[in-house]
Amino acid sequence: MESSLRFSSLAFIALLAYFAFLASAELHVREFVIQPKPVKRLCRTHESITVNGQFPGPTLEVRNGDSLAITVINKARYNISIHWHGIRQLRNPWADGPEYITQCPIRPGQSYTYRFTIEDQEGTLWWHAHSRWLRATVYGALIIYPRLGSPYPFHMPKRDIPILLGEWWDRNPMDVLRQAQFTGAAANVSDAYTINGQPGDLYRCSRSETVRFPIFPGETVQLRVINAGLNQELFFSVANHQLTVVETDSAYTKPFTTSVIMIGPGQTTNVLLTANQRPGRYYMAAHAYNSANAPFDNTTTTAILEYVNAPTRRGRGRGQIAPVFPVLPGFNDTATATAFTNRLRYWKRAPVPLQIDENLFFTVGLGLINCSNPNSPRCQGPNGTRFAASINNQSFVLPRRNSIMQAYYQGMPGIFTTDFPPVPPVQFDYTGNVSRGLWQPVKGTKAYKLKYKANVQIVLQDTSIVTPENHPMHLHGYQFYVVGSGFGNFNPRTDPARFNLFDPPERNTIGTPPGGWVAVRFVADNPGAWFMHCHIDSHLGWGLAMVFLVENGRGQLQSVQAPPLDLPRC
Ligand code: C2O
């Protein structure tokens, strides 16, 4: 009698705990209205495409375990789709967002509701348009707090500041893209970088709107730095202040201190900053890390960290004292960029796959398509060619008639093939002086099939075709471990011995060292069609992309869910 009473009270407590757990998971219902809105920057007003009239777009703040239902209503004149960058979307590729990969775009006047749940993820991610160059202005932060009562692995400051780094064109970005697509030449570089949408003091007509962050002396804050820029890796630094890195791409790291971070498009980096300097005003600044032999935007964006007790100037010329400027590395300082990236470690022992089922070797880089008439206005690339880019010599072309995921699910033929090559068609000295005969890739829409739960390793090998370059490679639907990297050609006999299989950083986007390679591992436990591509949008448009088609497992919980009824059709 007594023991059954005890059992039922235990069961009751367990039930209460279960309800508390359920009650703590929230559903966030939001509307994202895609609409043009006049935005004035660099002395000129443009009708920018925005979400709800906001630029940058709204910040989403959720908890691990929460669900989101975001209705995107397209009131702009362009097709659009929204990607939730870094969210795993387990068995739910329908909510991932890349146009023609997992969905057809949302047409003007139409809408689509992205429904998804955050499953075992916390930290800083972001969302952005995944349709041509619309993400130039359509992006925002997506912050995932731990479940209620679940601790951070470091002392979490009370204040949290999203820092969205962006790129601004003094033109309609869609026209910049259209022109480049016509001529085959490289697109114009941006006219400014921005911090939370503002270029800052160093640009024309921008001073009064420079973003300011007040801070109390002695206070520690967390900066959630997101590189939402279209085409450029950036160095970021705060004058006189050290930054302690605690997280990248929504995965905690072993904390380490640095004066500068390098962040590629698509990546996020959380740093702690303590206001332990003389009360004053300090610039935070970002400028290009340019690893390629190519034109780039060499301007500098700034915001101001302002101690609330900063002294003011007295007497004549009264007012605020001039901010201190940080030391940023040189534009081509690959040594600093690499040293920073190589310091990242997962915060604890990582469950890295050790037995590899799929050993993939991908060459990534640029290329040139020869023209029959090199004087054509459509062949304004180097020596009368058109720019291209490829993985294993395959230059990816988006399908038009359907998305890959929809075609796969419906068994519709003719949209894509599954013969993406696991290795390049020929072996050559990838980072040496590559013969011209190997510069021209082949166009196609090819996917690579993976068995459910396969242990995958990919070595991403940069090539020196056209130029060596840091390519920030992003994989949808997964987080991977970055187990090794180096310069020159990957050596399969000697390099794996030096892999870090203990605490390699977990990421969703990793740059190839320019003229080097990087190796990543993951378990293919998320069925669906998942895009992998360079997060530099001009390279993506040239074809630096491929698709993994991860097969279903046996059980229902190992298979792709049924598509939602409002999934857009092509
Ligand atoms: Cu953040 Cu496919 O991109």
Overview of the molecule:
Lignin degradation and detoxification of lignin-derived products. One of its GO terms (cellular component) is apoplast. Keywords: Apoplast, Copper, Glycoprotein, Lignin degradation, Metal-binding, Oxidoreductase, Repeat, Secreted, Signal. Belongs to the multicopper oxidase family. It is a single chain. The chain is mainly beta and 570 residues long. It folds into 3 domains: 27-145, Immunoglobulin-like; 159-342, Cupredoxins -  blue copper proteins (Immunoglobulin-like), CATH 2.60.40; 358-558, Cupredoxins -  blue copper proteins (Immunoglobulin-like). Helices cover 10% and strands 37% of the residues. The protein contains 5 helices and 34 strands. The protein has helices at 2-24, 173-183, 334-342, 404-410, 537-542, and strands spanning 27-41, 44-51, 60-63, 67-74, 82-85, 111-117, 123-129, 139-145, 159-168, 192-195, 212-215, 220-227, 233-238, 243-248, 251-258, 260-263, 268-274, 281-289, 301-307, 312-313, 319-320, 358-370, 385-391, 394-396, 442-444, 447-450, 455-462, 472-475, 480-487, 506-507, 509-511, 516-523, 528-534, 545-550. Strands 10-9-12-17-14-15 form a 6-stranded mixed β-sheet, with no helix packed on it. Strands 23-22-27-32-29-30 form a 6-stranded mixed β-sheet. It has a 5-stranded mixed β-sheet with strand order 11-19-18-13-16. Strand 24, helix 4 and strand 25 (442-444) form a beta-alpha-beta unit. The longest helix is centred in the N-terminal third of the chain and has 23 residues, at 2-24. The chain is globular and about 75 Å long. The site of CU-O-CU linkage has 11 residues, from strand 5 and strand 33.
